[in-house]
Amino acid sequence: MVAMLLGLIVIGGVVSVFLANQRSYRTNQALSDVQDGSRIAFEMMARDIRDAGLTGCNNNGRVANVVNPSGAAWWNDWSNAVRGYGSGTTADPALTVGTAAGNQVSGTDSLQLIGAADTGLSVAATPSSTAANFKLNDTTSDLQTGDVIIVCDPDHATIVQITSYNNSNVTVVHNTGGSTSPGNCSKGMGYPTVCTTNGNGYSFGPNSQIFKLGAVDWYIGVNPVNGRSLYRVSVATSGGTPTASAQEMVRDVTGMNISYHQAGVASLATAASVGANWATVDAVQVKLTLESVDKRAGTDVKAISRNFTATTAVRNRVP
Questions:
Q1: Integer Cα distance of 284 and 286 in angstroms
Q2: CB under 8 Å to 91, separation ≥6 — which residues?
Q3: Burial of 257 (0-12, 13-18, 19+ CB in 10 A)
Q4: pLDDT digits (tens, 9 = 90+) for 84-105
Q5: Which of 19, 94, 147, 312 has its CA 20 to 30 A from that of 242?
Q6: In 3-state terms, what secondary structure has residue 281?
Q7: What is the model's pLDDT at position 208?
Q8: Of 263, 262, 235, which is closest to residue 247 (Cα–Cα)?
Q9: Which phi-psi region, left, alpha or beta, contains residue 237 (left: φ > 0; alpha: ψ -120 to 50)?
Q10: Are 145 and 133 in contact (CB under 8 A)?
Q11: CB distance 95 to 220 below 8 Å
């Protein structure tokens, strides 16, 4: 009997140590998952924030846009290369608030960013300032009819939609009319924008740079298991039309608060406080709340939740 009692005491001690170690492992694993999620989220968001307003050639503010303004698509407003939404602002036009998978969670902040995507193409020759086409230096590319591109040189940049692309002779056509949507209001690529057929004529010379227009929107959305995740909306061409689609990036991001630094202002501001002065925003501070995948990992048998903060400069607006 004494031996049995001693054996039970030893077994009880071993079980107690095992359970404590198991709890410690689950907690540490949950903390690691939360930290990994925050690093991934901030790295991806920072990349888009840094590139906001990028034309690929300069940051002198000389940007023409001949993409048809009708319909006022959010991705076609270069004046809002950085634009936030939140409490006290209008609704984000790129998103739908609701409870379905992919919808924005009501009451959370969102951030739109527009700039040049990494394409790495260049102009070989432009026939004339009134021509609506030019050839590429490259023998092939991933451009397609309907893509919105940025063409630039040291003087200025022009945003234009490809109305036809011939891959065999790498010729880009950017005429008015055609089957693409929204199309171009002018074939002229000069600065400033003149929305008439010939518009403001300008020839981008050899080796002028070409980039696809990159437009994204970061927000907190409802994920497929009815939780919350960090989502990213991006714009890609589908059937000749730029189309926005959302992708879940990091799961269990339950909250996002965004503040903005404006040139010449010491303190950070909310989206509502920035008002119409988005051109002055030169840095973005993002605060994320992440929750562990294991919903019983905490000492209170609940999910572990942590807040993380990162500030990123909009490098195209930093002197």
A1: 6
A2: 85, 97
A3: middle
A4: 999 999 999 999 999 999 999 9
A5: 312
A6: strand
A7: 95
A8: 235
A9: beta
A10: no
A11: no
Interior CA angle at 170 toward 166 and 171, to 5°? 65
* H-run or E-run covering 44: helix 2-51
Tell me, what amino acid is at 100?
A
Apex CA 151: angle with CA 211 and CA 193, to 5°?
A: 135
Buried b / exposed e along 196-207 (16+ C-beta atoms within 10 A): eeebbebbbeee
Q: What is the pLDDT of residues 146-195, one digit of tens each?
A: 999 999 999 999 999 999 999 889 999 999 988 899 999 999 999 999 99
Q: Which helix (H) or strand (E) holds 33?
A: helix 2-51
Specify the amino acid at residue 44. M
Angle at 142 between CA 136 and CA 143, to 5 degrees: 65
What is the pLDDT confidence band of residue 43, given thresholds at 50, 70 and 90?
A: very high
Q: Length of the chain in residues, anyone? A: 319
